[in-house]
Amino acid sequence: MNAAPVLIFILGCFAWLLYYRLENFFLRLYSVFFLILVVYATNKAYYGISADMSEGTFSPLSLARWGALILFAVYAWRLKAPEKFQADVILSLVVVLMLLDMFLSAFYADSFSYSFMRTLSFILLAFAVMKGMTIYFYNSVNCLHFFQLKYYTAWIMLAPALLMLVSGLGYGITIIMNQYAGFFGNQNMFGTFSALITPYVLFHWQVVAQKRWEKWLDGTLLAIILAGLWFSNSRNGASSWVIAVSVYFFVVNLKYRIKIITAAICLVIVLAVSPALKSDLISFVRKGTDKSLQVTDFASQLNEEQRFKMWKGVWPLFWKQKLTGYGFASSHLLVFPFTKDEEAGRALHNSYLEIFGDLGLPGLILLLLLIYRIGSRSLSLIQRKGEYLERNINAVFISVFVAGLANAFFESWMFSVGNLTSLMFWVPVAGVAARWSWRTELSTAQVPKFAEEIKQKWQIQQGTTA
Asked: Where are the chain's structural domains?
């Protein structure tokens, strides 16, 4: 049965957001590009979008994606940095070198046109994000508007789908091998989306929601996210969710850091004294392979995993071209001989190993330098003494960054512009750079009423003057 009304519902909800909740033109351009990637991430065939409509460079949906990306990049180029904006020169240099390496690698890739187009799209995305979004996030009010967009997105993409599941109707949702994927095309995409959207919900729960019913509403949304992760059986999504939540509260203040450490210790104790819970956890992590006769220990577990089979198979090939790689976006084509699963074989399922296969050691080193630079900026933000609102803004960006890094170890989305997760990861990276550059106090005249009330409440609690 065709579920086109579900896609119409999603598009209608986002249209309402664009018209009634987003006033900034740059944010609207980002939202259009984000929405197109959301459509790509859904179960397109189930919603009536044929391959002719979405696959190929010149398909209607692909052309719409290119058009939205170009507009996003052009308007980012037109944005002017604030007077006190302090650019990270070293970070910019690392990004430029990586993009140059990608561009040059296209000339020795097996398919120049494919590698070049992938490179061009990532250059456009990198420019739009690292220039446009960094300047945009320099203003704290813009951060609040962006978080509001993500909060509404969580409701649109997660709540109706779970309702269809628990009600027994099942209309419009995807179930793959008894694994729930919601509106998305596969359970891994659903799990990753759920994990990376959670910090925005936590921010709303911690900062925006003031009334009791608002708190309960946000608590319900968090429960929906958890339930969806459980039904999806997405191991990478679940672990990324734990990392995102832990890092968020770790960044906010010392009290939460102590609680996180305590909770971790208690969990270890519970697993040690409860064989049943430990068995359930192992079953979830192993995803049924614990019942296989071939699985007797950790090493045999790795042999059962398709990802490790692929990594082990392609590693010698990648090492042969360790100085240059096979060209940007080309190395994943070597995966097919090492897996019987055609779906799994479409990607290497490891962003770090894939960039090594694409660009060799130079590309991998540049990526690690970029991560180190953003990581050091994140640590400086954690140590910076600031008001409650600002610490929560920092917590959102840092938690998505860290959770995304962990998630990318088992997925190949990091440099895929057409992948929704890539956009959801790189934008918060720009957020970290922007908040590190932020040096001025928030202008009271610019702050929305709800944020100002929170700010005054926090100052009163700390015994300071508003």
From this structure: 102-156+188-461
Specify the 3-state DSSP secondary structure of 441.
coil
In the chain, count of helices (H) and strands (E)?
19, 2
**Please, which residues have CB within 8 angstroms of residue 113's CB and are 6 or more apart in sequence?**
none
CB 357 within 8 A of CB 326: yes
Three-state DSSP at 110 gives coil
CA distances from residue 125 to 335, 399, 415 in whole angstroms, order as listed? 26, 21, 10
| pLDDT tens-digit readout, 222-274 | 999 999 999 998 888 999 999 999 999 989 876 667 777 777 676 666 555 55
Q: Do 456 and 388 contact (CB within 8 A), yes or no?
A: no
C-alpha–C-alpha distance, residues 209 and 396, integer Å? 16
Strand partners, 174: 182
pLDDT digits (tens, 9 = 90+) for 367-385: 999 999 999 999 999 887 7
- Asked if residues 244 and 402 have their Cβ atoms less than 8 Å apart, the reply is yes
Structure tokens at 37: 């990637």
Three-class SS of residue 191? Answer: helix
Residues ≥6 apart with Cβ < 8 Å to 309: 303, 338, 339
Classified as helix, coil or strand, 439 is coil
* Distance separating alpha carbons of residues 391 and 10, to the nearest angstrom: 32
* pTM exceeds cut of 0.85: yes
* Cβ count near 18 (within 10 Å): 15
